[in-house]
Amino acid sequence: MDSKRIAQDDRESFSLWYASQMEKQGRACAICRRPFEDTKATEPMVDHDARHCGPRNHCAVCRRGLLCMRCNNGIGLFGENTESMARAIAYLDSSPVDLSQPGYTRCWGRRQTWEYRADLKMDLDKAQQMRELRAAGLSRKQLAALFGVSVATVKSVTSGKSWREPA
């Protein structure tokens, strides 16, 4: 069999695997579960187990799944070391802050963090109520007056860009 024929067989095999994997994963990242259409990466990335063929060579055996760019880069930055990842998870879970309490909000800056602000007009329950009222037909202006926030805040909340559940 010549090399062109082998390459064609590999492409067909990969295409079948890729389509099957997309359906199996529900067209979403295998780790964060975000739909691929919602991620910044233009194409899902094929994750390979580098222990099998090394970091630069890949084969059909070492394919694990499809990841978004963030999750694929995250695994790579941890060097695929599951012990380090487990320590990172334990570290994140040890936070003294209870983010489920009303008044906690995500603060955007150089790093995404959560902080408590007693002066907030919104909480997660109010955001859900706002989304329901918007779906029921209230205008953004009406919602802004009802909740005492700006029309821009109503747009951000009802579109899901802000006031999502803490992950």
What integer is the average pLDDT? 75
How many structural domains? 2
**What is the N-to-C order of secondary-structure elements (H for helix, E for strand)?**
HEHEHHEEHHH
Distance between the termini: 51 Å
CATH classification class of the largest domain? Alpha Beta
The radius of gyration computed from the alpha-carbon positions, rounded to a whole number of angstroms, is: 22 Å
Please provide the count of β strands.
Answer: 4
CATH fold description of the largest domain: His-Me finger endonuclease fold
Largest sheet: 2 strands, antiparallel
Strand order of the largest sheet: 1-2
Secondary structural class: mainly alpha
Write structural notes for this entry:
The protein has 167 residues and is mainly alpha-helical. It folds into two domains: 3-93, His-Me finger endonuclease fold, CATH 3.40.1800.10; 104-158, Orthogonal Bundle (Arc Repressor Mutant, subunit A). Helices cover 45% and strands 10% of the residues. It contains seven helices and four strands. It has helices spanning 3-24, 50-53, 69-77, 82-93, 124-135, 140-147, 151-158, and strands at 45-48, 63-67, 104-107, 113-116. The strands form two sheets. Strands 1-2 form a two-stranded antiparallel ribbon. Helix 6 (140-147) crosses helix 7 (151-158). The chain is elongated, with a radius of gyration of 22 Å. Residues 108-112 have low confidence and may be disordered.
